[in-house]
Amino acid sequence: DAGVTQSPTHLIKTRGQQVTLRCSPKSGHDTVSWYQQALGQGPQFIFQYYEEEERQRGNFPDRFSGHQFPNYSSELNVNALLLGDSALYLCASSPRSDLMVQYFGPGTRLTVT
Amino acid sequence: AQSVTQPDIHITVSEGASLELRCNYSYGATPYLFWYVQSPGQGLQLLLKYFSGDTLVQGIKGFEAEFKRSQSSFNLRKPSVHWSDAAEYFCAVVLLYSGAGSYQLTFGKGTKLSVIP
Question: Can you list the domains of chain B with their CATH numbers?
Answer without folding.
Answer: 3-116 (2.60.40.10)
